[in-house]
Amino acid sequence: MHELSLMQGVLEILQNAAHNQGFQRVRVVRLEIGKLSAVDPQALRFCFDVVCNGTLAHAAALEILETPGQGWCPQCRCAVELPTRFDPCPSCGGYDTQVTGGDAMRVVDIEVD
After folding, report:
1. How many CB atoms lie within 10 A of CB 11?
2. Sheet containing 69-73, strands listed edge to edge, beginning at the edge strand earlier in sequence
3. Burial of residue 49, with CB atoms counted within 10 A of its CB: 0-12 exposed, 13-18 middle, 19 or more buried
4. CA 85 to CA 27: how far, in whole Å?
5. What is the CA 26 to chain-centroid distance, rounded?
6. Which CATH number is associated with domain 3-112?
7. What is the chain's mean pLDDT, rounded?
8. What is the pTM of this model?
9. Residue 59 · residue 69 · CB < 8 Å
10. How many CB atoms sit inside 10 A of residue 77's CB?
């Protein structure tokens, strides 16, 4: 379960931000997770509670914004939505699509006290 190490990284981001900006508590964390990122939102929610217990983000809310997978089909010369990484182009059925988005996870913003 790599979600645990991902959430430890998010907590480190929160702690660095608290140090640099001088806040004491995190109320809300908003993450953007792409459909092609291989991150399980349910597992991430569980890990959030475990990792943040007793920290500045204890009892904080986690909001997850899921973004669709995006790709470029060189045969059609068009941008397409990809439900999974290795799906064919929905327009022509070709398998040469290149992922152009929806494959990352990032902290969008945080609400703090």
Report:
1. 19
2. 78-82, 69-73, 98-101
3. middle
4. 34
5. 18
6. 3.30.2320.80
7. 95
8. 0.87
9. no
10. 8
Which of these, 87, 83, 104, lies nearest to 96 by C-alpha position?
A: 87
Residues whose CB is less than 8 angstroms from the CB of residue 8 and which lie 6 or more positions away in sequence, other chains included: 51
Domain spans of the chain?
3-112
Q: In terms of DSSP H, where are the helices of 23-109?
A: 41-52
Tell me the two tokens of residue 52: 């943040």
User: How far is it, in rounded angstroms, from Cα 39 to Cα 91?
Assistant: 27
In this structure, what token pair is assigned to residue 46? 């569980």
The secondary structure of 70-85 as a DSSP string is EEEETTTTEEEEESST
Spatial distance between the Cα atoms of 29 and 88, rounded to a whole number of angstroms: 34
| Residue 35 contacts residue 104 (beta carbons within 8 Å) | no
Q: 52-77: per-residue pLDDT in tens?
A: 999 999 999 999 999 999 999 999 99
